[in-house]
Write a structure and sequence with these properties.
By secondary structure, the protein is mostly beta strands. It is 12% helix and 43% strand. Strands 1-2-4-8-6 form a 5-stranded antiparallel beta sheet. The chain has a 5-stranded mixed beta sheet with strand order 3-10-9-5-7. β1 and β2 form a beta hairpin. The termini are far apart.
Length: 318
């Protein structure tokens, strides 16, 4: 059947200049190639699909076509193969195709979803190679069944004027992450970037390491950075890291001495305040010292007074 289909390839005399074709290959040395490959079915640039998109359940065989355009004056022979997870599931009617001059041929392909494939999104590429150039056409497959959107942010690290982190897709759906960044210092907020989309698509199981620039990072502060990520399907996560910014030498020594001196003064003042509050004061005498008594002598230090005899001796003869 595939041989019969291949025999019915279209040989329409519709040249497509390589310079105007977004999927055109490039020959070695940077010279533009005179052929192109793209998803089949479109008669021109306006009708061209940006990638091959298929949907099916595990175990399903899906059909599509790859268009190869030869705008040159000599026959073109290209080799076709699949690459990546979804690309490896594709099989062409012929692995090698010869296209006459100024002709476009559409090559049938069958993509079979493995029976044990996890529901969600899978991606890959269809690769055409010829005349020293290579063209890669993206292919995306949506596998039916329950999907799980799970995203984590890991290994957050503060490194000078940058914040490093990693994003991991732990579900089975293709994710387009969004990121929010906030940094707090000793005296308040240093950085507050609202949630924004990141320029990447995270396939299931994929891990990507990224760097968030922070050109106006503080020179002297203790910082806590918090990252929040989110994606469609309710996937979200957050993580944080702490670090200390100190000036480089010789300013580093002066900064540390300054901090140490301030800490010592604060500690000394605190101890002095505590000592002043806790030291008991000597009791003050309620009676003034007698005349002729030594200075500092109070009533409690006086000896027996002959004029103050016990009551039992009152009225006795001397």
């Amino acid at each position: 059947m595939l041989t019969a289909v291949f025999a019915a390839l279209l040989h329409a005399l519709t040249p497509f200049p390589a310079a105007a074709d977004t999927a055109a290959g490039a020959a070695p040395g940077g010279a533009p190639a005179d052929w192109a490959a793209r998803p089949g079915g479109g008669a021109g640039d306006r009708d061209a699909r940006p990638y091959v998109y298929l949907e099916g359940t595990p175990g399903t065989a899906l059909q599509d076509r790859l268009a190869v355009t030869n705008s040159g004056r000599a026959p073109l022979t290209v080799r076709l193969r699949g690459d990546g997870r979804a690309g490896a599931w594709a099989r062409f009617a012929e692995d090698t195709v010869t296209v006459p001059p100024r002709t476009r041929a559409e090559v049938p392909l069958a993509l079979t979803v493995p029976p044990a494939a996890t529901p969600g999104d899978a991606s890959g590429e269809l690769v055409a190679t010829g005349r020293g150039a290579e063209v890669r056409v993206p292919v995306r497959v949506r596998i039916g069944g329950p999907t799980l959107a799970a995203l984590t942010v890991e290994d957050v690290e503060i490194a000078g004027g940058a914040i490093r982190y990693a994003l991991v897709n732990r579900g089975n759906a293709l994710l387009r992450p969004r990121l929010a960044v906030r940094a707090e210092g000793v005296f308040g907020t240093l950085l507050d970037r609202p949630e924004r989309p990141l320029p990447l698509e995270l396939a299931p199981g994929r891990r990507v390491e990224r760097t968030e620039p922070w050109p106006d990072a503080p020179a002297l502060d203790a910082v806590t950075v918090r990252l929040r990520v989110a994606a469609e399907g309710g996937a979200r996560d957050e993580a944080e890291a702490s670090g200390t910014y100190v000036p480089v030498a010789p300013a580093a020594g002066g900064g540390l001495l300054l901090l140490g001196g301030l800490a010592a003064l604060a500690s000394r003042a605190y101890r002095k305040r505590r000592t002043g509050r806790g030291t008991p004061r000597p009791p003050e005498s309620s009676e003034p010292p007698e005349a002729g008594a030594p200075p500092g002598t109070g009533a409690s230090h006086r000896g027996p007074d002959p004029d103050h005899r016990p009551l039992a001796q009152a009225g006795a003869r001397p």
